[in-house]
């Protein structure tokens, strides 16, 4: 009696071409997937989780600052992967980007191909999504998650067997909110579906491919997985995602250290009486001065936080300097910016790369 052949591991496409406009100034010099989260480029976490699920071959669909990816990750062998890179010359949308890399895939027409958006932090059970795709005989499977307020997302209602019945774009009235299930940005496509996407023009899977398949009677399956899920599209969300990785709330085998209140990378310098809490990350060669308090924040490589500064739920860019006694609350300071002593930056303030804010220039009155 011979053993049945093992089911081959699926390959994957990672969509990493977006400009990250909502994340600026974090993405002025760095593509969104390469912004550090919990000490390594965010993309590292996605690649490591895919590898842990058995994926070995991944094609990266790049566009904005495409030249950054390959020098960092190379052929992927350090992660146990085989990586390839395909660059869009013109923006092609999600569907167009998927179609644009099809020639690099090795799958047969009926084989499953995983597809991930490059800005989603999730605890999705990747193997379960693929297994569900295979057992239901779907043409396309979608990871769905439930959110308390789905108005900012596309809704994906399903029937009692999990089969997708419609795609509803960003509802606004209570009558339009027929489900709390949203498209969570991870898919399994049969290879033949990828090959059917029109080539060499922009295509949106959300607005064109999926509704078109549904209209043709294709089988689109939804799998609700309500583990950790976060869209890292805004600076506040990105900083929270990084902190959640450090705290262990979001799973990743790529966090370079033990989970806990803080992650201080090699060659960083932190004063003995500085206090780091809430999943704070201090990057390489960064310095934190005496009496500083940093909570739930990311301080990138080579940045300096001077004595007595207070930084909460904020991001301090590479090579930036935060002056003594300055307060950051929900702020983003771009790479190389200088924020002088005795300033207060709160509530979503963004300081552009290379900006210079003099001492005491931005203050909030005590009754605010």
Task: Report on the architecture of this protein.
This protein is of the alpha/beta class. The protein has helices spanning 42-52, 69-73, 93-100, 126-136, 191-196, 205-215, 235-247; strands spanning 11-15, 36-37, 40-41, 57-62, 82-87, 112-117, 120-122, 140-146, 181-190, 220-224, 229-231, 262-264, 269-270, 275-277, 280-282, 287-288, 293-295, 298-299, 304-305, 310-312, 315-316, 321-322, 327-329, 332-333, 338-339, 344-346, 350-351, 356-357. Helix content is 18%, strand content 26%. The strands form six sheets. The protein has a seven-stranded mixed β-sheet, with helices on both faces. Strands 12-15-18-21-24-27 form a six-stranded parallel β-sheet. Helix 2 links the parallel strand 4 and strand 5. It is elongated, with a radius of gyration of 22 Å. It holds the Pfam family GMPPB_C.
In a nutshell, what does this entry contain?
This protein has 7 helices and 28 strands. It is of the alpha/beta class. The strands form 6 sheets. Strands 5-4-1-6-9-8-10 form a 7-stranded mixed β-sheet, sandwiched between helices. A 6-stranded parallel β-sheet has the order 12-15-18-21-24-27.
